[in-house]
Amino acid sequence: MTPDQLSQPEPTRRRVIEALLGGGLLASFASFLYPVLRYLVPPAVADLGGDEIVAAKLTELKPNSGKIFRFGNRPGLLIRTSSGEYRAMSATCTHLSCTVQYRDDLRQVWCACHNGKYDLNGRNISGPPPRPLEGFEVQVRGDEIFVRRRREA
Ligand code: FES
Questions:
Q1: Whether residue 91 is found in the same domain as residue 16
Q2: Which entry of 19, 68, 119, 153 is 20 to 30 Å from 85 by CA?
Q3: How far, in Å, from the CA of 2 to the mean position of ligand 1?
């Protein structure tokens, strides 16, 4: 063998190294691209919930309190007012979709993300929320509180 031949890598070793480098670059590219694509094309999430669910037991909420419950794939908010009345609405803020909560000190529905506020009927009254929260019907049957989506007329 000449010294020139000794310094040249073997063709098969070169191919293996090129394949490894190429595979690594491809894997890196895919690892960057995948989250971007998942963000741009979110998976279709089926709403597995029906039109009605049991949001709470009758004894669960004291006056002037609220409870987050799961309604399909979204959170809902059940409120028992100071006078003992029940109200239910979507807990997804109409601004940027944060989950709202009942504030017993304000007696309002409040969004912690940007200080958005809604009244007890879900109407947006202050802050950035552009629309009211979707309201639900509430029915007490036996010792359970049922929440149902409003039917469109
Ligand atoms: S997301 Fe609720 S106020 Fe901005």
A1: no
A2: 153
A3: 74
For ligand 1, atom 1, which residue shows the shortest CA distance? 96
Residues in the ligand 1 pocket, defined by CB under 6 Å: 93, 95-96, 98, 111, 113-114, 116, 127-129
Q: Is residue 97 part of a domain?
A: yes
Q: How many helices (H) and strands (E) does the chain have?
A: 2, 10
Could you tell me the pTM of the whole model? Answer: 0.70
Taking the C-alpha atoms of residue 105 and residue 127, their distance in angstroms, rounded to an integer, is 18
- CATH code (residue 140): 2.102.10.10
Taking only the tens place, the pLDDT of each residue in 35-79 is 888 878 766 655 555 789 999 999 999 999 999 999 988 999 999
pLDDT tens for residues 6-44?
566 567 888 888 888 888 889 888 888 888 888 787 666
Domain that holds residue 30: 3-40
Ligand 1 centre and the CA of 6: distance in Å? 68
Domain count, the chain: 2
